Amino acid sequence: MFEAAELGRKLDKKTFKDLVTPLRAALLQEQFKLSAKKRPVIIIVEGVDNGIKGELINRLNEWFDTRGLEVHAFGHKTEAEHERPRFWRYWMSLPARGRIGIFSSSWYTGTLYERTFRKLSARNFDVHMKRISSLEESLAADGALILKFWLHMSKDIQRSRFKRVKKEKKTRWMVSKMDLALHDNHKKYIQAAERAIRMTDNANAPWLIVEAEEARYRDATVAQTILKALEGMVEQTEICSDGDSVARLVPPAGTHKTILDGIDLSQSLGKDTYSSRLDELQNRLTQLSWQAYHQQKTTVMVFEGWDAAGKGGAIRRVMNAVDARIAQVISIAAPTDEELAHHYLWRFWRHIPRAGRMIIYDRSWYGRVLVERVEGFARAPEWRRAYLEINDFEEQLTEHGFNLLKFWIHIDPDEQLTRFKEREQIPYKQHKITDEDWRNREKWGAYELAINDMVARTSTDYAPWTLIPGNDKKLARIKVLETVCERLENSLGKR
């Protein structure tokens, strides 16, 4: 692959100078159009030498308007980054729609280094590359323009460059110990890079191998490629549009079988039994939550369910047992403008807690395949691909050692109607009932189908759904607490 690159290509000073002025003007013009196109641009710069990556990025930083540009260089992980899944720091750095993000060292870099120095097996290297490919496909499907540049030079030229740079005191810093180590293992590094490029090169996130021995040729080639890609961008509304409407003919509620039909809603719990079990389980959870904190075992809980199913009551009983300093409840409503400017999973990645903490989502990323699907806020291609995106997201959490618990609290339409009427009559509950809640009842059948698909497609070995019968609130709360305690005990090795 790299042997086919045309090494030694150059641009003379006059040609470069004549090229740069109109090129810079065109780049700025296209950058200013980005906000109207509502698409983010991600530029990844990788290569054999950190010094030349820095030179190129500084040139792009000079040519673009820095007010719409973000440059991210990823080095050794901070303590906060170590406590979260590997991709967390990259998600936190993704540019919003209408902005350009340049990644110097990216989600490729660390894995390439690990494979070069044989700290990572070939199998695990391939697993990571497949995850990168999935991430890039997801971002591209959401509208991101992804451009990836590999800056290549021969080992001999790199050696000569190192000697030249190290002679000068003001440039000596440009050659790091890692650069020298990679140079000594040049063949292994190139082999790892070739495999990475083969596994992750596709139409939505293409690689361009750029001969980088001469700076003018390198910079002009990259800038012209970026310009051509920006000129070819279309507005976000045109992406992935297949004309498929989410409006579907749905059988009336109760006329079709779903996973929810297997839940026994007749179960109940007596008041005395409830009180004693509640006290016992909350005391148990208090101890377990602190043990998890000290052992740095992170817990993420997801609560989904019908309107008025009792999610809030169950969450309160959990939080009553956990110190507020190590736990947080995130209530998910309609996305803010900032959240809409990113991939829908971004706002959930940003809330991932540090090690040992507990976070509870009152509604979650499953809104993409529930309310957004049924109400038409997400187009069919968007919610259909969300099942795989969600499974991958959850797998990354559990691979990092997180406890992930997902609860669906189920009630029947009659019980919901009773609770709606009760809310209308009780002053301190009236804020809980809205016109939207009543409208959603009319789409009960559509939601049943969506819930069935959600559970069937996202209940995995590493992140199973727990379906809670909710017609009796006391029983639902106890079952939630029992499940949380059992999962924490398993993760702490107490069972």
Automatic annotation (TrEMBL):
Q: Name one GO molecular function term.
A: polyphosphate:AMP phosphotransferase activity
Question: Known Pfam families for this protein?
Answer: PPK2 (PF03976)
- List GO BP terms, alphabetically: polyphosphate metabolic process
Q: Which residues form the Polyphosphate kinase-2-related domain?
A: 11-235, 270-490
The UniProt keyword set, sorted, is: Transferase
Q: Does the keyword Cell division apply?
A: no
Q: Say which domain of life the source belongs to.
A: Bacteria
PANTHER family xrefs: POLYPHOSPHATE:AMP PHOSPHOTRANSFERASE (PTHR34383:SF3), POLYPHOSPHATE:AMP PHOSPHOTRANSFERASE-RELATED (PTHR34383)
Q: What is this protein called?
A: Polyphosphate:AMP phosphotransferase
